[in-house]
Description:
Layout: H1 8-19, H2 38-48, H3 53-64, H4 70-74, H5 78-85, H6 91-109, H7 117-121, H8 128-138, H9 149-158, H10 166-176, H11 182-195
Amino acid sequence: MTHPISHVDEIFSLLKKELDPYGRPIVSRSKPDIPDTPFVTLISCLLSLRTKDAVTEKAALQLLKEYNTPEQLSGMPIKKIESLIYPVGFYKTKARRIKEISATLLQDYQGDVPDDFDELMKLKGVGRKTANIVMVYGHKKHGYLPIDTHCHRIPNRLGWIHTKTPEETEHALKKVLPVEYWDDFNDLFVRFGQTICVPISPFCSRCSLQKYCKKIGVLTNR
Ligand code: SF4
């Protein structure tokens, strides 16, 4: 049987080379002067939802440089959190969530971020993507596949899978993508989706994956 993803090794090598000049997203990399903890990953990921990376980065650095523990953030007035994370999208809701989650972690988990996917999903405002991000980039665990809009769109364009939602994509990809590529997948495909295989009119003419791509659903490209 032909494998649904041919040349997977070459594709990942090409992506790593092509994306090398672009910095990694704030959520998946360590941040200067901020401890590299699962809590920092969790809060960065919450800040990043529906927000451009550059804006998330500024807010994350502003907030987390000084305040990076559940103790500090559960005791902080919401208005102060709002002012530190402004202008991330939905900053009022996010400020409330950050305070609530910090309090829950203190109350129910001794101030630790659980290293269990189902426990993470119990935290208010934490969905599959965030829980997977915390497992991979916060706890450095293998076997998780965080799927955002880029990670959903691009494997469908490539013709690897045919899915309608990020959750379907997570399950379908786990069946066709060999596990050794899972750790790198989110980081590479988010950067690829932000820079080359963008949502509208992707830059196919300068894409190193052209010969492997079925361009499914791509109506116009550059
Ligand atoms: S060829 Fe175009 S659609 Fe296919 S992966 Fe590259 S940029 Fe995306």
